């Protein structure tokens, strides 16, 4: 953890206003680290710009961010053994992944569920289906009170998952429901979102350094 702290120090040097969020960023990292150490996954959800952030986080976790993440020799050998020509391409180009799913992207499932059942439970339904004990639900909400994110957080805890919240400065229901809540010190939506990005980039850099 000590070596990884340089990422947080760099974050705060670039965004001094995030000094007050430092401890919660560290705690959120520890939750994510344990999740991946125990071979579990992260489910991420948000609305609007926060949905785009959820997709962005998945992109940083599921492929190389700053590091190449080449397959280990054992897996590379198995790929070539299965099919020499195709396997060599795979061995050269596949990258190590930290399993993460953005819950906003499943249009057919979400629209079917919203049409047939209860629209505000579209994320909760996916947490119910994908989630399990040891996984993490990462809920992003600038207000901290987005109902579909709150329903998903309740479902996550019932499934034995940890919940990380990423919100603005105001006290919120998501903060109360989270095992760890990173509250960036802004109250205007776009300003909150401008601080969310460097926070989750920092977490992703730390995780990549730890596991790759």
UniProtKB/TrEMBL annotation:
The keyword Nucleus does not apply. Pfam families: SIS_2. Gene3D superfamilies: Glucose-6-phosphate isomerase like protein, domain 1. One of its GO terms (molecular function) is isomerase activity. The keyword Transit peptide does not apply. Residues 32-212 form the SIS domain. It is an enzyme of class 5 (isomerase). Keywords: Isomerase. InterPro entries: GmhA/DiaA, SIS_dom, SIS_dom_sf, SIS_GmhA/DiaA_subfam. Its EC number is 5.3.1.28. One of its GO terms (biological process) is carbohydrate derivative metabolic process. This is Phosphoheptose isomerase. It comes from Blautia luti. The gene is gmhA_1.
